[in-house]
Amino acid sequence: MSLPFETVAIIGLGYIGLPTAAVLANRGFKVLGVDIDPRTVATINRGEIHIVEPDLGTLVHDAIKIGALRACTQPELADAFVIAVPTPFKGNHEPDLSFVEAAARSIAPHLRQGNLVILESTCPVGTTEQMAAWLADSRPDLSFPHLAHDDADIQIAYCPERVLPGKILSELIENDRVLGGLSGKCSERAMHFYRSFVRGKCHLTNARTAEMCKLTENAFRDVNVAFANEISIVAETLGVNVWELIRLANHHPRVNILQPGPGVGGHCIAVDPWFIVHSAPAESRVIKAAREVNDSKPDYIVQKVRKAIRAFTNPTIVCLGLAFKANVDDLRESPAVAVVEKLQSSEAECSFLIVEPFISQLPGSLVRENTRLGSVPEALELADVFVVLVDHDAFKAIDVKQLEGRPIVDSRGLFLGKPAYRSIN
Prior knowledge:
globular
């Protein structure tokens, strides 16, 4: 196979960077994975992984074994650089681009004429141009496309990831890509890179549109989840089973209401809409309202739990799930974690048994004397109150009869969402 780029450096070996590195290494590229955490680097170089993703362990092991993938803590020379580092927000929902800046400045000494730099991190509109300015500041001997356009020594583009945890490896290859260059030549070079391993279509645009595209996708999903979450609260206020309500409403040919939950988590949907709000606060009223609805849902769940434990003295509260979604180990921005933290703060006399099959130890924010990880059998034996926060497959196997006689706060409709109506053909 003839590759337009022989060596690729992936900056950031998290949920996007490591799968991307593994896919590229198994497609014939020579891949250098870069991460600032020496433990992550050591784990990968042993042919092991530090995150949970189906089939990723085998792919990384094979790539390390054949020498196609190597991890280190500092960048080196490469033909293409892909930046996939976190972009969190600060306490006031202001975007924190310090990781992107650090990544850009770390690769700057290794840039050569003809290199391609791609930013995949989800970012506010204008970040790719800012990254080009950081690179230009570090390498005044080279020209960059925000000033030199097609004649630049270094080509720069933005390509947002749009994969689903649990299906990352397949979606990295099968999903369409939006490629936004800082010039027409940048977009074309990025397209040649992604066509080396992507089966989906490559849609070319400019960097700002590509940045806004990713934010729009996640804001759209956030707004729709907020509608479902708000309807769940309204339905309960009016004495209506929201799970049955949504099933019935979705029989309308043009209605597709999502499922409510304890909030919204994950690095993308819970964060990205705030980037739009920060950039255009007066114009993003619906997006901001949706964020506020979803961010407030954990408090609503906590109030339901407090009501459920009133009849008990020093009860054991079983919380089923901590991940932000089903069947993954990802706790980033998880509303389930937020619920447990809030309960720990207000209900110090309670004992908490957390059942999360995808982690081996509690995150630091939840470590308390009255809190421990446990199993489903322990939960069924010890629980006074059940709080369903994640609909893992492991929990779906629980027979609701085993929970009889004990209060259930079911934020996922796992046990309380069974249909109470019949469809007549």
